[in-house]
Specification:
2 domains
Length: 226
């Protein structure tokens, strides 16, 4: 082989190598461009790579999640229940004859299963009221037709201390339970308590637990009046 042929082969080889290198760089650059456009997240310019190769977030990035405050119009409080519907008809009469706020229970035993009639006693003072609960509209307080009583009066300096068995009622109030007694007829069992200058008494022909439930429903029910 002549020297001329050797030079020609070397020249062709050099051209092929140069062409291959150019094509390799072009393909590599194109692949990197496609990877970047395919959704791979590039680290921010101010990120730092630690010695293990993990990208560290910049110092000015706050990754903490702050809870959203509740809307101003959201009321999480529990609204009190209204007094039992049997009292609706007598509320106007009570408001006319007494200055006291009306403490009427939302629970009246038996009223959801049969008729119970509230009858307002004649007013003797605007500092008190009394309601008789009867099974008939014309009940005059007799044992056979009476379910119980609801009363309230303003406390005075002459008021006697409450006596009986102490009972823990709703809202931290202490009540006093007195069981029924029987002679010619049987009296009502009662629970009484003092609150905000007034004394409240519920009487019932029933068990102590039922009377407690009724008293608690009166304390937590929506107040009517002052």
């Amino acid at each position: 082989m002549s020297v001329k042929h050797v030079k020609t082969i070397l020249l062709v080889t050099a051209v092929l190598l140069s062409t291959s290198l150019i094509l390799f760089k072009t393909i590599t650059s194109k692949n990197e461009s496609e990877v970047n456009q395919s959704g791979v997240v590039q680290p921010p310019d101010n990120s730092e790579v630690n010695q293990s190769g993990v990208v560290q977030p910049p110092d000015n990035v706050d990754n903490s999640t702050k809870p959203e405050p509740p809307p101003d119009n959201v009321d999480n409080s529990t609204k009190p229940e209204p007094p039992h519907q049997i009292f609706q008809s007598i509320v106007p009469q009570l408001q006319q004859q007494t200055q006291l706020p009306l403490l009427l229970p939302s629970f009246v035993p038996g009223a959801d299963y049969g008729p119970v009639y509230p009858v307002v006693s004649p007013a003797t003072s605007d500092n008190k009221y009394e309601i008789m609960l009867g099974y008939t509209e014309d009940c005059n307080g007799g044992t056979a037709c009476r379910l119980g009583t609801i009363s309230a009066e303003r406390l005075t300096v002459a008021a006697k201390e409450l006596t009986g068995e102490r009972v823990d009622l709703a809202s931290g109030i202490t009540g006093y339970f007195v069981d029924f007694t029987c002679g010619a007829s049987c009296s009502d069992a009662t629970i009484s308590w003092d609150h905000k200058g007034s004394r409240y008494t519920l009487g019932l022909k029933g068990k102590k637990e039922t009377l407690e439930k009724m008293a608690n429903s009166a304390i937590t029910a929506r107040k009517i009046g002052k």
